[in-house]
Design brief:
Rossmann fold
Length: 668
Amino acid sequence: MFGTLVFGSVMILMIWVTVKFYQQSRSYSFGEFLAYKVDHWLSENPHYKTYGLLVVTILAILWGGFLYYFAKLLHLYFNNINTDETFAQAIWRSWNFLVDNGAHLDEEGGLPVAISIILTLAGMLLNALLVGLVAEVLAAKMDGLRKGKSRVLERNHTLLLGWNDKILPLIREIAEANDSEGGGMVVILADRDKQEMELDIENYFSGEDLKGTQVVCRTGNPLLVSDLNKVSATHAKSIAVMAQETGDPDESDARAVRIVLALCKGLTISGHVVVELRDVDNSELIRLVGNDQVEIMVPHDIIGRLMIQCARQRNLAQTYMKLLGFFDNEFYVEKWPQIEGMPFSEVFRYFPDAIPCGVYRVEPSEGEERLLLNPEQNYIIQPQDSLLVLAEDNDSYTFDPNPIIFDQQYEKDLPPYAPSVTKPEKILFCGWRRDLDDMIVELEKTVPENSELHILSDIKENERMALLQQGGLTHSLKNLKLQHHYGNQVVRKCLESLPVEEFDSVLILADQSSDYDATYSDSRALSTLLLIRDIQAKRNKHGCTLISEILDSRTKQLVSVADISDYVVSNELLSMAIAMVLEQRYINDVLNELFTADGSEIFMRELRYFAVPGESLSFWELFQRASFKREIMIGYKRAGQDVVLNPCNKCEKIKWAITDVVIVIAVD
């Protein structure tokens, strides 16, 4: 016992001498130095609370055992009690005092009892700190889960980066695409609160069945590689980079460039990337960064072209609503060795449940695939060619070795049809878009000479011309003559001042200013549409194609109640297009050709272009007549009925009426 006391005294003396020497050799005290080191350690170590509690507990056990040991020895010595008490036993008793509040009750002697009570009180404090620490860790973990900070452990999922108005209808389209596979996984990474995103999704679908598709939301910055790793971007089958709806378009596109750079250069991704841009001029920069892993979509460009096509052809908007997305018929590409060496004009005979529309040809010199939509009828299918078809699903059609047989050739039965002489058109645009200059250039390619484009907007004429020139419309128009009208499109007097009875088509543009609201914009567009329709009816104007742009897909319910059929739900159509490219990247080539004035487009042909009214022909017979004009019939629209694409029973005889319309893919 005497040796232990001497050893302890020597250790305390050495510590005291060290502290005094340190204080004399430094300009600051040992306490200040210790406080500085502790503060530095706390700032550097994120788990300082756990480590600190562990260190304090160990020190309490050791110092408590040390004090209890000497107190016990003194008690035994002064009471002449012989015992084999060891230091290890004292450490064990110190631990008991700290963790068991009643362990001190059987102690004897004043000093050991006092030490045991002090250790018991210290143990109560440490236990309280431990409970608080555990509660804090659990709360932090739950808060992290609530805020979407945990890692996503998924593979072969669809990853959406960013949040805008197209996200919700896009989820619906992806769920429909995954229906045949029993569902899929959609992961969203956006700089929004996780609970807000989940609440928006819940309110939008309101119990709607997503057909087995699950949606996981995470809060983070898509610009950071660490956050991209958190959502398993390297294992995603496809990735969509969504544009920012508000703010400067160039800033939004610059953000998209950084995200693509992080995906394609900072990570090794296996899937392709679909990038939504707001300015078509930034496409080359995205291609430079993303190489062949990126598909680019410019919503304003697509919708502008689509609106122009729909404004000049009645019922074309309904056709695109069915053609895009996964709720009706879609385009599919697959190789069929059975048709190698066969002319394209004969291929349709071997696919009764689909409609061949083109081929993907591998260019021998470049080794890249190139789309041939509506190729020449004598084009010979090459060994490396893939067939593009319109079908209900990828497993709903197959090659039939028993081809369709016709009793006669229908080329000689084509009725004589002299297309009406093209005359100048008068078109009205109500509203203003940032990309109106691109729409005017696209319209210029399609209208005959001496046509007029009237623009009604609350933007003054000098400001309009400055915006058009800033957008790139600096050259003079050959076929179009611009007529500007100043006024509010929802005010009846402004509309009545226009010659609405003279317009061949009217296009109502949605208000997409930086502070626009989709509901407010749709209300203005529908009000304008109803006012123009009423004014035209009172002026005995019929046959005008009246088309309105709608942003919110939920407005369709109100539109159906109001018996309005001439509208384009732009955000929903864009979501359909993005979903199709996410699932099948080659669809982007098809959409680019369909939406441009160059190449093949979708046309609503009058029946008398292919048949005599009252004639009974099956779909395949009418299809063959169209093929002689190098036009591919994909469906039809009968009076009072919905658009029909790729009908099930193509051999059924139909008695065609003069009001029927044939839907074809053709070169204008």
